Amino acid sequence: MTNQTLPPVDEDYKLHRRFDRIGRLVGDRGMAKLFGSRVAVIGLGGVGSFAAESLARSGVGCLDLVDFDLVCITNSNRQLQAMKGTIGKSKAEVLAERLSMVNPKAQVNAVQFFYNDRTSERILKPEGQPLDFVVDAIDNVTAKCHLLATCRELGIPVVCSTGASGRFDPTCIEVGDLAKTKVDPLARDVRKILRTQYNFPTGKRKFQIPAVFSTEEPAQPQELTYDNGEGFRCVCPGGSNGMHSCEKRAVIYGTAGFVTGTFGMVCASVVVKSLVSAE
Asked: Of 34, 72, 181, 264, which sits with the fewest C-beta atoms within 10 Å of its C-beta?
């Protein structure tokens, strides 16, 4: 059997030592693909911020960080942007600045939009290099379904994060086709809308969209002393924004940063493995 000669790595490719350890996993060819890829992370909360950081630390060369919201003090337990001095600042801008320090050669774009049918084209069809992958870390069901359906229509690979709130055990997290997830109520609602409004397959047929989900039943939120028996009170710096705010949510679930962060890292692993294995 003769050895097959592989084509040379792109001439513009050069591995920096900061990516030495991931390079030793995926090789020069894989790193060249990562450096040449563009990924959008839509929703920069407890899941999306960790997904974005993992992608930056894996060498993805262009990242679009999409979120309209401002950093809130209640984000501190799970979002990388939430630190002393950042409350009230743009989530996208704070995270973009952080990731630019992780990889100064990367193009990191802060996109301060709420994803919906009006902003979809500007986000999914950016100027210059087209998107190679999308991370769906949105927790608004209407926006989430529109994003997944539009990615399918445009042929953009997407990984979907389902419900991470109300969970305490990161070992219950799995990856599977969105049509086949178990337990998660958010995924169930998303499937119903995709099938009824966007003509996704019914029955046992797969959606061909990888989903990150937990098989742990979500726990109901507990009352805290400072609620004074009045329930959760929104302290978001942006107040009521007319889009996705505390006042529009029926229940505010508790979250554990080690669960939401794991969701984000698993999403990033799906993206990286797909990019480095692409022809």
From this structure: 72
Q: Dihedral sign, CA of 179, 185, 191, 196?
A: positive
Q: Convert the pLDDT of each residue in 95-110 to its tens digit.
A: 999 999 999 999 999 9
Cβ pair 106, 56 in contact under 8 A: yes
> Would you state the structure tokens that stand for residue 248, as one six-digit string?
């529009």
H helix intervals, 125-181:
141-154
CB of 259 within 8 A of CB of 167? yes
The 10s digit of each residue's pLDDT in 232-248 is 777 777 665 566 556 55
What the block records as the tokens of 238 is 């942006």
Q: CA-CA distance, 65 to 44, in Å (whole number)?
A: 7
Q: Among 185, 170, 163, 173, which Cα is nearest to 259's?
A: 170
Check residue 119 and report its DSSP letter. T
